[in-house]
Amino acid sequence: TCGYSLERQGKLYEEIKKTFDKPIIIVANKCDIIGSKTLQDLNVDHAIPISCETKFNIQQLELEISKNLKV
User: Fold this and answer.
1) How far apart are CA 7 and CA 69, in angstroms?
2) N or C: at which end does the chain have fewer Cβ atoms within 10 angstroms?
3) What 3 state SS string does the chain have?
4) Is residue 25 a contact partner of residue 61, using CB atoms and an 8 Å limit?
5) What's the chain's average pLDDT?
6) From residue 20, how far is each of 12, 16, 24, 58, 68 by CA, in Å?
7) What's the rounded Cα separation, in Å, for the pair 27 and 48?
């Protein structure tokens, strides 16, 4: 984990969203170890779940980045 509570991460996200007029991609890493919790339980249902360990959804994340960069 990053060491910050989900509440603190959510507040940081809101600050960033207000400050920058750019697309923001929310990524929920380590989805392979979340266990019984779902992204909805964590209140990040609009995030792209990924796992660097298993490579789950990495291609989807790359596509989303490309789309936002208009590459």
Assistant:
1) 28
2) C
3) CCCCCHHHHHHHHHHHHHHCCCCCCCEECCCCCCCCCCCCCCCCCCCEECECCCCECHHHHHHHHHHHHCC
4) yes
5) 81
6) 12, 6, 9, 25, 14
7) 5
Contact of 26 with 42, CB cutoff 8 Å: no
pLDDT for residue 59: 96
Q: List, for residues 34-62, the tens digit of each pLDDT value.
A: 654 555 665 655 788 899 899 999 999 99
Residue located via tokens 């360990």: 53
Q: How far apart are alpha carbons 36 and 33 in whole angstroms? A: 9
Across the strands, what pairs with 51?
56
